[in-house]
Structures
1.
Amino acid sequence: MTAHRLPLRLKAFLRRSRLAQLALIVGVWALGDAVSRGLDLPVPGGIIGMALMLALLMAHGLGPASIRRGADVLLADMLLFFVPAVMGLLDHGEFIGLLGLKLLAAILCGTLLVMAGTALTVETVQRLMARAELRHDH
Amino acid sequence: MTIDWSLPFWPAATLLAYLLCRTVYRRWPGWYVSPLLTTPLILLAIAVGLHATYGEYLRGSHVLMAMVGPLTVAFALPIYDQRAVIRRHWLPLSLGVMAGSLIAIGSGYGLARLLDLAPELRQSLLPRSVTMPFAMNVSGHVGGLPELTAVFVMVTGIIGAAVGDILLKLLPLRSSMARGALFGMGAHGAGVAKAREVGAEEGSVAGLVMILAGLANVAVAPVVITALG
């Protein structure tokens, strides 16, 4: 009987506790990281962990309520976790000057191309699909 | 016994600066006060004043950086939430993401060649259109420097959120999916915030495209980038 009720109690605990949810997410990441390192895969641990988590959700092994509060903590303030990486600029004083301007120019032009290309592709495919559907109906 | 104050100093300073910048951003939202721009600027000013190196900064702050892994795992939830939209619009979305990723990598490569940038700079520039956790993962795998890519991703987000509005006026886009994809593919997180201002559907499509682009790049970018040499 206890063996039957324990998972239920664990589930109820998970739904309530933000910290337990965070621990679960970190645990799944650690598992993904161990798999990535152990099998020497070119895919990083975070991605493997995400696939694992998604599989758990899709297979209903885990309800979305069991991680939502924990995931929201990470997702809502994700910019904070990127700040340390951006501080890498400290070791790149050479970016102040012509090189920095070149990089800015490359990023500006590249981003304009990416945005226009992506949006026009989605728009075109949608129009073509709508037209095909129309022809199908007639 | 002496306590090494430099160890907790930088993570604490990072957290405080972030909270301050977040408050300012919520009060007066605009791409030029994005916490991703203002927080590092404050910290860089402090670090330059204290003559600190990146290594010293990272000694305590790598804990924050380590959370990028679990953050990637947390992205499973928004993907799960959007599964109905993915199922209904998988074709235009996946073609758009594919086109966007190829243009991002191709334009990065071409422009870097044109401007005569060093190979490691070029490789760091290629995954810039992808949200940070994915971009840093890709960069390390293709011979780029993850911390340089982080800087390029940040700059891309800020520029993209700023120029996206202009493009919206110039391009004949009738579908909200196309408008959302423009921001999600071109400017990741900063773009998603901007797309939410354009409309609710644009915002959710942008978030979805941002994640799909991250996944596509992790899978495809190493192959394409290695092929480009």
Note: The longest helix of chain B spans residues 200-228.
2.
Amino acid sequence: MKEKLKKFYILIPVLGALLFISILLIIFGTSPIEAFSAILNGAFGSQQKFLNTSAFWVPLLLASTGLLVTFSAGLWNIGIEGQIVMGALAASAVALNVEASKPVMLTLEILAAMGAGGLWAGFTALLKTKGKVNEIFGGLALTNLSIILTNYMISGPWQPPEGGTFRGTAPFASEALFPLLASSKFSPLALILSISALALVGFILSNTYFGLKLKSLGKNHYSAFLLGVSSDKEVFLSMAFCGALAGLGGAVRVLSWFDSLRQSISGGIGYLALLVVMLAAYRVILVPFIAFFFSSILTGSISLQLKTQLHSSLGGILTGVMVLFVILFGDRKKIFKKKMDQNNE
Amino acid sequence: MRVEIKEIKKYFGDVRANDGINFQLESGNIYGILGENGAGKSTLMKILSGYQSQDSGDILLDDKAILFDSPAAGLFAGIGMLYQDPLDFPPFNILENYLLGKSKNINLNFSSAAKQVSALADQYGFEVDIKAEINTLSLGERQQLELVRLLAEGAQLLILDEPTTGISAEQKEQLFTSMRRMAYDEKKIIVLVSHKLDEIQELCDHAFVLRKGKLVGQSEVPCPNERLVEMMFGSLPTRRERHPSVHDEVMLEIKDLKVATYRIQIDGISFTVNKGEVLGLAGLEGSGQGLLLRACAGLEEIDGGEIIVDGEIINDQEYHQRRENDVAFMGSGRLEEGLITGMTLTEHMVLAAEEHDFVINWKQAEVETKSKINTYQVIGQSSSTADQLSGGNQQRFMFSMLRTPLKLILLENPTRGLDVRSTNWIWEQLYERRSDGTAIVFLSADLDEVVDRSDRIAVFSGGKMSRIVNANETNVDELGHLIGGQE
């Protein structure tokens, strides 16, 4: 019985958060049922809406998948936001400067984006291992740098010919964009890539020596070192791996969600991915579902304002409260009084 | 002030750290507390100072029973302890540190504090630069500062735990002068915890000797060293019969090795260990023997000298390279250094293996792990996590992860916490490796183990290594003197 309950532990804080938000809504004189059904409708109300929810989901899934790797190595890759931005920048650079057939374009864009994201995360890793700069601070600094770089490119070298709007570049050529489904923002190709990445990471973490080394580092750095694990190398590799997937997520953002490089191209997907992976308690199988759940709430609430008097930021508030509730009450150690580590197996 | 210790008992699981200790301390005296590793000195002093509480028994202060719930409460009652590592805050300056322990005001009065500190320092002949930051001070200066703080709080009974380790000869003289002054002029009680016989003889009026949690003797000092040594160590065990298997060639050569940490310095030691030889390192814990092992393993940076294994200088090799070159290290903290909480035995075995494929063959790894834990009699499943094993089984499992053959095995407390049968079995396994030419260097807090298991013995005291003695020719008197810091 307990074993079965454990699988659903995550529902407790999620339901708690829904209840809390409902009470808030009632206090402010709005019907929670109306609000939640508007969100549901916004996320799944039509084929178009469902596809857009999925389109939001894909880059989030990529970033979350990458974070599974760094989290299992015990690294806080907060800089993932910047790695997404760098991926978007690199994909845009290819899109704006290369003319070729679609398959060639897409291949180049993807490789450039993964390279740039990996490089950015690699810098963070080197700062940590060579310069003793904690990956949280290094990552945040590099994220800021990537945003400044984006703004510069948009307002400078990549300004559209008709004059800059400071909002984004001119739309890319259609050869540069991901093939989209039914005039939505959803790209089946991107979905295939992200599911493959998730499967690959699942395999690496549970079946390879590399994955085992990461796990050992995450659990006990010094013992792992004594057992022969070279931490500097693994820190670099896991960060670069995560950065590459984040970079790919950035490419998906510019090449399917948008059609050009915009300001705040990531829109906080990196930070959201951190929450997804924490909620999943680092378990691979939970990640796509939680990521999809978040995507539904966030895209669903965009149309909230049209139907109710509520602001679309309710979706953000809802996810935020959920995360807080999970952190506060969702600790399985407290709920089931068992060692976290044992349950992780 | 009179302090009476009555039937103090403190057990940690099966370990009887203090097993009914009685004695009295009178003001105006300097007392020495002597005992080897694990005799119960530290536990008793921690109880006396309020750092931890006894299971049973009483501490009477001027005939009144007292029970402290913290060192601060102890200090309030007039009992202050100077720990081996001073309890100060390195980023602070001296006055901030002084006031942190003393003042509860929001607005700190630095100028009056400065006067107090200077006055006390002058009184005892300490030179304290009031503006200095703690982390620029030497250990000796930090000790003086801590003493000043304890005295300012009104300590009437001062406990000093191994205060002369790591300080200069000059500082030691100063310390001793001030201790005499406190005892004889100011009628305080001074308790010196030390393993150095010379110091006890030089400074103390009376010595208490602890062994295995009991007070085994006391004596007015000065007295013949032999007397103290005999009380401290009792008699040595008879060595078990075995065939030494020492080869002629040298496996490990240490030339003028220098290692320095904040606490302790090894300043130029040299020795060799032959193939198939077992060298045991004895001495009070933290006297430099652990530093030597870690320097050999590549876990501690060396400041000079050479480490040569099987004819090759390995100074520049990092820990991982040395490991690949068949130098193995096993530390005494099992779940801190060696095993990983939350990972299964099979996972450990895969990590520690000599060769790795990119994709792990879990089935094969499990079969190998099962056979290893069978051979090493580990009670546990291949799917158990390391932290689910009992201490003794963790130790056996760590041995099962050692590769074969090895050139050099470096061990810290190899059988701590094991029962007699397991201990014998572990040593049989280690001895079997000698036919490969493996040299073994180990330290043990248990002197009996060092004497029983080694071919030769070196004793560490305050970072200095004694001459190396043959285990089958030495006696308790010789070792006792060496441990006590006398050649």
Note: Chain A touches chain B at residues 207-210, 212-213, 215-216, 219-220, 222-230, 339, 341-342, 344-345 (CB under 8 Å).
